[in-house]
Amino acid sequence: MTDDDNTTFLISRRLLQDVWQMPAAGAPPRRLTADGNNDAVALSRTGRLLIQKRRRQGGYAVLLYEPNQQTPSVATSGPSDMMPSFDDHGRAWYFIRTEQEAIVRCDETNACRPIHVDPQGPAWPVPSPSGQELAYLTWLGTPRLKVLSMQTGASRTLGAALADCPPIWSDNDHLWVVHSNEKLLEWTEIEVASGRPTGRQKSLGDGPDRAEDCVLGGGPLAPLYPQARVIGRETSEIRAISTLASERRWP
Fold first, then answer.
1. Residue of higher predicted confidence among 232 and 54
2. DSSP code of residue 212
3. Does 35 score more than 70 pLDDT?
4. In which domain, by residue range, is 232 found?
5. Residues with Cβ < 8 Å from 72, sequence gap 6 or more?
6. Residue 69: pLDDT above 60?
């Protein structure tokens, strides 16, 4: 865009994403970050917080914040650590190290190690309430739901499922995953032992904008509070640059 004085105006836009906490249904949210470089979050029942954050040098790292702390106690090495989650007690936590196609588990002392590698690309690791099994999705080829035994290390495929939303445990024997039905998305409950649908379903409409939307308002179960989610906002900046110098002709 140029005006009559040969000034060019450049408009730049940037999406800033920050973590907000929802203390209760209908209560005003509380902002937890302000840097705009956050892509995913997990909040434990004990108040511990995991944030997937974009690194300045590129890629992602997972940061662990203890309750009421403003600085992280742990920052993973990256360069592509994503999709964090807690176990049901909030002590152990998990994430995906995408460049290694690995699921990483961190224990109550925050010591982390890979526990499973899947060449189909693991995503969204979610431990069962008992901690005996870990559900996750794959995204290469046909996306699938898999369950990993934490005792034997063996994994089982329970069938096709979309990777739009993390799997949700309703109890130790049943999982909810997202399927596509005539261009619309719906939650389907799966029996873990057999991999067969139980017949329980819930519409997800056109699908979530973010993974957090899978639970807040769009999930198959009533959301637990407090909850944390990433909320994005777009900022714009207008810069004026004179074009006289660029248009000057030299002999």
1. 54
2. G
3. yes
4. 10-117+228-239
5. 51, 63, 64, 65
6. yes
Is 160 found in the same domain as 82? no
- Taking CA atoms, 157 is separated from 9, 47, 167, in Å, by 55, 33, 13
CB burial of 107-136 (b: ≥16 within 10 Å; e: otherwise) equals eeeeebeeebebebebbbbbbbeeeebbbb
Tokens describing residue 156: 């089982």
Q: Give Cα separations from 83 to 29, 43, 96, 106, 116 (angstroms).
A: 22, 12, 6, 14, 15
28-32, 118-122, 127-131, 244-248, range with the lowest pLDDT: 244-248
Count CB neighbours of 220 within 10 A.
Answer: 21
The single residue listed with the structure tokens 């906002």 is 233
**Model-level pTM?**
0.83
Same domain, 34 and 110: yes
- The total number of structural domains in the chain stands at 2
